[in-house]
């Protein structure tokens, strides 16, 4: 419990919201807390307790709050849900207890699998899986690695979800090539799709946040754990543990919000992810296998009239990116024009000054008059 309370991520966010310290003091406090944690605990302890705390804070607690809200005030909840009352979670205590038990079991399972993999790799490589040091990663490095992690996660999620969990056979070469090489047709997977359908898609209705981890344990690991943990292992040599914590927190919060089925999710992009997730659960045909919708748009497996590009355009118009870009271009052009005029004026002044100084004749000077460019001779 002392490790959980001393997590620097939690203390950092709580300190910014509760106190009025400046940003520099917050960063200093964050660095001191993180350094103390690194120096007093092993890397595997920090990783496991940190990931568990993130999943509890960003998934379990919000899911239970959403579930409580939906069951206590269903008349209000159905007005802010996709598909209305059909998106409300079941009210049967036995059903909810079974779903909660399965979700908690999968949470414990992914924690145990992560512990085994991290411990085994650390013993095999004789170093921690993720870089755990007192040196904090730079913001630009965090942003670059997060972009790569999200890209790899989206690729793994889409193809695993489509070809393994929904039984779509993988693409085969053209028939002429197949006949020449005598390639057999790709078998259609049956076991995994039946497990995924009987557990995750048992109810043909929009999901609720608790259903993020309601699935058969094997298909759950393939769908949720592998696309999150495997990209981090690929970048493990340069990936700081804090960056992995940020990535895990963002993905967990995204999964929780996208499965809540609320229509009031902030942000057009996040709202689009929630809408596509609901259509994946309720659609008459399979589709919307990815999270962000990009690969669904590329492969033509998107459901509904709107795709990811509609969300991007709405987000851009919401923030008036085009008008802001034009204003920035106009401001930059005006500044460049003023700079050119100023440099030209200074150049003309320097030329006129040099011409007046060079007109010496005898002991006199050539004094220029403002109206007469020839000047008057002064003995």
UniProtKB/TrEMBL annotation:
Its main location: membrane. Residues 367-379 have a biased composition (Acidic residues). Residues 324-340 have a biased composition (Basic and acidic residues). Residues 324-379 are annotated as: Disordered. It is found in: Membrane. Residues 341-363 have a biased composition (Basic residues). It comes from the Eukaryota. Residues 147-301 form the Fatty acid hydroxylase domain. Keywords: Membrane, Transmembrane, Transmembrane helix. The keyword S-adenosyl-L-methionine does not apply. It holds the Pfam family FA_hydroxylase. The keyword Ligase does not apply. This is Fatty acid hydroxylase domain-containing protein. It comes from Podospora pseudocomata.
